[in-house]
Amino acid sequence: MPTWKANYTSKFAPHLLSVLRIFAAGSFFTHGTMKLFGWPAPFEYPLNPLLYTAGLLEVLGGLLLILGLFTRPAAFVVSGLMAFAYFIAHSSDGFFPVLNHGEAAMLYCFTFLYFSAAGPGAWSLDGLLESNAKASVTNIAEAS
């Protein structure tokens, strides 16, 4: 790929990272709302303590990721949740995710793990809070 194309398209990377975070977290959030609130559809299985805990983490983690608030730690926790879900619920049905119906858990796991390393992207409350903190430090330094 010519260098000018790489440079031209790379300026959109932080914004696309935010779009991916928002849409992935929004979809993830609905898994939790199904378990806890029966929305957008009722959950198929009776809730046990493990599923109830997963639902709470999906709702809270999904909401934090949608907002881009505490993105790195929230993404790390829900990435672990999805790894746990994959091994508890899917891997016993065979090795291949396409056959054991674990593709979503696997993709969520690695997508959220990426967010824990890459951060929230350009549009997030984390970024807003960071820029406000930097502005405050700058104002204090200028006042001194």
Describe, in plain words, how this protein is organized in 3D.
The protein has helices at residues 3-10, 13-37, 49-67, 71-90, 97-100, 103-118, 125-143. With 144 residues, the protein is mainly alpha-helical. The chain has one domain (14-143).
Summarize the structure.
By secondary structure, the protein is mainly alpha-helical. The protein is built from seven helices and no strands. Helix 2 packs antiparallel against helix 3, helix 2 packs across helix 6 and helix 3 packs antiparallel against helix 4.
- Number of helix segments? 7
What percent of residues are in strands?
A: under 5%
For the biggest sheet, the summary is:
none
- Apparent shape: globular
Give the beta-strand count.
Answer: 0
Specify the helix fraction band. Answer: over 70%
Overall pLDDT level: 92
Order of SSEs, N→C?
HHHHHHH
Structural class: mainly alpha
Rg measurement, Å = 19 Å
| Domains (count) | 1
State the end-to-end CA separation.
50 Å
Poorly predicted segments: none
GO cellular component, one term: plasma membrane
Subcellular location: Cell membrane
Main location: membrane
Protein name: DoxX family protein
Task: List its traits.
mainly alpha; 7 helices; globular
Topology overview:
Blueprint: H1 3-10, H2 13-37, H3 49-67, H4 71-90, H5 97-100, H6 103-118, H7 125-143
